[in-house]
Give the backbone structure.
Amino acid sequence: MTKEKHFSRNFSLKLIAAIMVFVGMFVVAMVFGAANTTVKDVWLALTSHTTNEQITIIRELRFPREVGAIFVGAALAVSGAIMQGMTRNPLAEPGILGLSAGANAALAISIALIPSANYLTIMVACFMGAAVGAIIVFGIGSMKKGGFSPLRLVLAGTAVSTFLYAVSEGIGLYYKISKDVSMWTAGGLIGTTWSQLQIIVPFIIAGILFSLFLSRQLTILSLNEEVAVGLGQKTTQIKVILFIITIMLTGASVALVGNMAFIGLMVPHVVRAIVGTDYRYILPMSAIIGAVFMLLADTLGRTINIPYETPVAAIVAMMGLPFFLIIVHKGGKVLS
Amino acid sequence: MVRLFTDELNVGYSDRLIVKNLSVHIPDKKITAIIGSNGCGKSTLLKAITRIISHQTGSIILDGENITKENTKVLAKKMAILPQTPESASGLTVGELVSYGRFPYQSSFGRLTKKDYEVIDWALDVTRTKEFKFRPVDALSGGQRQRVWIAMALAQETDIIFLDEPTTYLDMAHQLEVLELLQKLNREQERTIVMVLHDLNQAARFADYIVALKDGQIVKAGNCEDVINHHVLRTVFQIDTEIGRDPRTNKPMCVTYNLLKGDS
Ligand SMILES: Nc1ncnc2c1ncn2[C@@H]1O[C@H](COP(=O)(O)OP(=O)(O)OP(=O)(O)O)[C@@H](O)[C@H]1O
Ligand SMILES: [Mg+2]
C-alpha cells in the first residue's frame, strides 16, 4: 500500500542528490576557464554589483554561456526521453529522427535568404525546420502499412538527416556563407548572450513544463498503444502534443548551439538506470542530468586545451559514441 | 436489453475485411467465451468492441450509446481490456504498472488517493502478485507477468472486463486459478467477463455463453450445450470430436479428437 509513497520518497532523495550535483557542477563550470577566476569572483559576480576584470568575464561571458548550457542540456535530454518513450525506440533522439538536421537546414536557408534575420526569425526557422525534418522521417517511416517500426524510423532518420545536412552544406557553399553557418552550427555555446537567452529560454521552459504535465500519459504510451487506448488515452492527440514539444525543445537548442548529437540519446538511458522507467521520474531527472552533462562538456571544452576551445559537440560525441555502441550491443534492452 | 452489443459490425485492416456483419449480444453479468481457430478474427473483434481499432461499418452500443461517440476516458471506467500480448518490455515495477490501472480516474497531476491504493492492493492481492510488487515487470516469468497485467486490468475497476487469451503462458494450476478468479469476480461482484479461450473444456466449464467464430462470422452462439458439440466443432475447427461429460462438473467435454481429412 505504501509502495508508491515509498518509491516517491526514494525519488525525492534522488532528485535532491541530482540537484546538489547540478549546483556543484554549475559552480565548477563558473569557476574554471581560460581566465583565472576564483570562487570568490563567482560569488561576487552573482550576488553583488562589484566589478573588476574577472568579475566582468564571469558575468558577461561565462554566466550566460553556462545558463545556455543548462537549458540546452535539459531541452535535448527531455526531448530525447520523450521521443524514446513515444516511439518505444531506444535509439530515438532529435539528432537521429531528423529534427536537428531539419533545424540546421532551416538555419542555413534563413541565413542565406534573409541576411538581416534576427534571433527570433532564426529560432522560428529552426522550429519549422525541425518540424519538417521530423515529418519527413515519420512520413517515410510509416509509409508502409502497419505504422512505423523502430528500425524503419532509424533508417529513414539517418537517410533524411544526411540529405538535410547536405542541403545545409550546399546552401552554405552556394551562397558563400559556409563560415556563418558553421560558426552557428559548430560554434556551440561560444558567444551566447543574454539577449539570445531571453528569446530562447522561455520556449525551453514551457516545453519542459508541458512535458512534465504529460509524463503520466507518456508512460502509458511507452507501454503499448493498445493498453494506452484501453486506459482511456486519446493517443493521437497526446502524440501530436508531445511531438510539438520535442520540436520546440530541439528547435530552440539548435538555434542556440547548433548540432549537439548524443545528449538526447544518452542522458535518458543513464537516468533510467537511476530512477526506473516511469516517465514521471525520467523527465525531471533527464532535465537535471542533461544540464549537468552539458555543463561538464562545456567546462571540459573550455579547459582541456587552454587557451584554445575544444568544440563542445566534439566532446559530447566523444563521450556519446561509446555509449551508443553499448546500446546497440545490448539490443536496446537498456530501454526497458 | 443487454448493456453491450454489436450490430452488423464490419472490421478489417486496410482492404481486408476480417469481422463480417457480426451481431452479438454480450450477456450482462455473465462470462462469455469466444472460441475459434487462429486468425479467425477473435482478437480483431475484441479490439473493435473496446474501441482499440476502429470499425468500418455497423455499430457497437454500450448503455444505449454508440461507443464511437462516447468519451474514451468514460469508456475506460466501464470496460477494461487485457490485450493478447502486452509488450512485456516494461521496466516499470509491478506496483507502478498496476497503479496505472487507475489512470482513467486521475487528473494530470493528481496523486493516487486512498481509494486508489486500496483498489491497487486488492488487485495485487487477488492475482497473487503482491510478492513481486517491487520487482520490474520484465524480470518476471511469462506467467507471473500475465497475472500482473490482469491485475492492472482489475485495478481499472470496470463492470466489463475483456481478456484476450488470459491463460496463455500459464501452467495448468495457474490457468485454473485465473479462471476461478474471473469466475469469482463474476459471481461475487457481478462483473461481465468476455474472454478469448483456446481450451474448449475450459470454455465449457467456465463460460455461461460461448461464441464460436469462423472467418469473422458467428457459427453458433449459446450455452455450452449448444456450442460444444460434435457438429459445431466440426465446422469451426475442422475436427472430429468425441464429446463426453466432465465427471465433476457434468459439463460437455471434448474427450478426444482427430483432424478431419480432406473436405469437411
Ligand atoms: N494489424 C493488422 N494488420 C493487418 N492484418 C491483421 C492485423 N492484425 C491481425 N490481422 C489479420 O486479421 C486476421 C484475424 O486476426 P486476429 O488477430 O483477430 O485473429 P485471432 O482469431 O485472434 O487469432 P489467434 O487465435 O491466433 O489469436 C488474421 O488473418 C490476421 O493476419
Ligand atoms: Mg488473437
Observations:
- The interface with chain B takes residues 1, 3-4, 7, 88, 145, 213-214, 216-217, 219-220, 223-224, 226-227, 229-234, 272, 276-278, 335-336 of chain A (CB under 8 Å).
- Residues B 42-43, 84, 164 surround magnesium ion (ligand 2) (CB under 6 Å).
